[in-house]
Amino acid sequence: MAERTAPQVEDADSTAKGVSEETSSSTPSVGAQAEDALHAGPIALETRGLSLYYGAFRALADINMKLPARRIMAIIGPSGCGKSSLLRCFNRMNELIPETRLEGQILFRGEDLYATDVDPTEVRHLIGMVFQKPNPFPKSIYDNVAFGPQIHGFSGSLDELVERSLTQAALWDEVKDRLKKSALELSGGQQQRLCIARALAVGPEVILMDEPASALDPLATLKIEDLMQELAENYTIVIVTHNMQQAARVSHFTAFMTTEGGGEPGRLVEVDSRDVIFTTPKDQRTQDYITGRYG
Amino acid sequence: MTRRGFDAELQALQDDLLILGSMVEKAIVKSIDSLKRRDFALAQKVIEEDLLVNHKRYEMEETCLRLLATQQPMASDLRTIVAVLHITVDLERMGDYAEGIAKVSIMIGDEPLIKPLIDIPRMSELALGMLRGSLDAFIERDVEAAKKVCLDDDMVDALHEQVYRELLTYMLQDAKTINQATYLTWVAHNLERIADRSTNICERVLFAATGKMEEIGASKY
Q1: Which end of chain B is less packed: N or C, by CB atoms within 10 Å?
Q2: Which residues of A touch B72 (CB under 8 A)?
Q3: How many C-beta atoms lie closer than 10 Å to residue A283's C-beta?
Q4: In terms of pTM, does the model score above 0.90?
Q5: Rounded to an integer, what distance in angstroms lies between the CA atom of residue B48 and that of residue A44?
Q6: Which chain B residues contact residue A290 at CB under 8 A?
Q7: 10 Å Cβ neighbour count for B5?
Q8: Is residue A245 within 8 angstroms of chain B, CB to CB?
Q9: Do residues B161 and B195 lie in contact, with contact meaning Cβ atoms separated by under 8 Å?
């Protein structure tokens, strides 16, 4: 886990289409062809029987899913279904909340992410996170990107790293002449891309995005979506979004989660290729949600 | 628009589909009647009313585009709208075939028919049954009913072949019949195409119900 390497993965087939056999509505459905696609390439993250508790409250129940490497997995579902909780499990952010308990397993590159010898800080380098509201440090643009690598003892050229990270985040051309200016002077969309650059600078393999565009205007949103597509060539991306059109536009795979009501845990209903989820979902609950007839 | 409003729009769209289907059905009935009864005024009416069919099709296309643009439909809603878009094209084209038959009726003019019309009206009845059956299957999203409708296409094809051979015989026996016999082969061809377009609608039933895109019973022609 401690070794940080660039992800070396082969392409998974993300173009699975069609209808597979019917599955019981009570168990999470994974279409046969999506199953093929999920197995076609390496898996970046996998949950096995994952349940999450906040004190006595069970927030997530028995989540089993695989997230192919270098693909975008969108997690959709109604408010309170546990999407963000699941996302935070992927980089052990939930541990920062007192009385959090996890059952089951999360495998990252096939290894238990929660094994006792795994350093949570190291996990958060390899599995970075971008939040709903851009949260740049009150520092210069340059320092925002350089800060993480610096405190982790980065020994190469910081200038090159900052330029590379900002370029990857499609922000370099807009800020290259004002790197020493405060990050807080940037627009919301630019701040969000700066936060992505900041996450990239520490060399992650997976980027978790929790509603990354919900605070942005439509044009800034499209830039973030384009950026996600580019980043997916090298990184595994998991995005939680309330915006179904966004999930439909950007994801390769889509997972639908729901809960049976207040106090009930969030469950995974269906995970499949994006095309199947948005044209021929198998579970009626998915169909109701994506056609706006939920509840 | 609320989802309830969207549901009402989707329902209205499918009601319009039945209206368009009914307009086309009447056009086919009238075109064959005009041929049987040598009623040129009726034939002329079919030609004029085809403009209304075209207009209705474009109106429905606009509704589909508006719903796609404003409602971002997904899953079965998306499939319904896409299916309706395809079916309106098929129906409008069937209207054109009826108009073609009406034009043939006028082109034959006062000339007596070279043979009594027996198989052509049979083809027409079968094609009309397929048209009605395919639209009913669509409204019900009944895949089995759609498949059953397609079985009739073989009978229409067989009748088409029979009419064609019979008319060829007339032409071989008497060159003076070639002109009218050729016109009548066009009529049979148009009816055969109408039946084929109904099988297209049946394929859209399968698509709307399941998302599958498959040919149901390929036509011989």
Answers
A1: N
A2: 244-245
A3: 22
A4: no
A5: 64
A6: 74-75
A7: 10
A8: yes
A9: no
Which of B74, B81, B206 is the best mutation test for A, with the most CBs of A within 10 A? B74
Contact A8/B at CB under 8 A: no
Do the chains contact at B6 and A279, CB–CB below 8 Å?
Answer: no
Alpha-carbon gap: A290 to the closest alpha carbon of chain B (Å): 6
Find, among A244, A294, A251, the residue nearest to A273 by Cα.
A251
Please tell me the number of Cα atoms within 13 Å of B132 on its side-chain side.
10
Contact B3 A287 (CB under 8 A): no
Select from B113, B95, B130, B115 the least CA-distant residue to B38: B113
CB atoms within 10 A of CB A22: 9
What sign results for the dihedral spanned by CA atoms B145, B149, B150, B152?
positive
Cα–Cα distances in Å, from A235 out to A58, A206, A208, B1, B95? 31, 6, 10, 39, 54
- Return the bridge partners of B160, or none: none
**CA distance linking residue A248 with residue A243, whole number of Å:** 9
B75·A19 Cβ contact <8 A? no
Instruction: Tell me the two tokens of residue B61.
Output: 């296309």
ipTM here: 0.77
State phi, psi for A77 to the nearest 5 degrees: 155, 165
Closest CA to B163 of B178, B180, B181: B181
Both tokens assigned to B187 = 């009529």
CB A25 within 8 A of CB A285: yes
> pLDDT 10s per residue in chain A (295 long)?
444 433 333 333 333 333 333 333 345 666 554 556 665 689 999 999 999 999 999 999 999 999 999 999 999 999 999 999 999 999 999 888 889 999 999 999 999 999 999 999 999 999 999 999 999 999 999 999 999 999 888 999 999 999 999 999 999 999 999 999 999 999 999 999 999 999 999 999 999 999 999 988 898 899 899 999 999 999 999 999 999 999 999 999 999 999 998 789 999 999 999 999 999 999 999 999 999 887 5
Q: Do B6 and A292 touch (CB under 8 A)?
A: yes
- Tokens 């939920």 appear where? A294
Determine the distance in angstroms separating the CA of A156 from the nearest CA of chain B, rounded to an integer.
Answer: 48
Nearest to B9 by CA among B55, B64, B59, B84: B64
Can you tell me which residue has the tokens 């998302």? B211
In whole angstroms, how far apart are CA A2 and each of A69, A113, B49? Answer: 19, 11, 77
- Does the distance separating the beta carbons of B3 and A279 come in below 8 Å? no
Tokens 């975008």 sit at which residue? A72
B73 to chain A: which residues are within 8 Å by CB?
291
Q: Do the strands A266-273 and A253-259 form a parallel or antiparallel pair, or are they unpaired?
A: antiparallel
Q: How far apart are CA B117 and CA B35, in angstroms?
A: 9
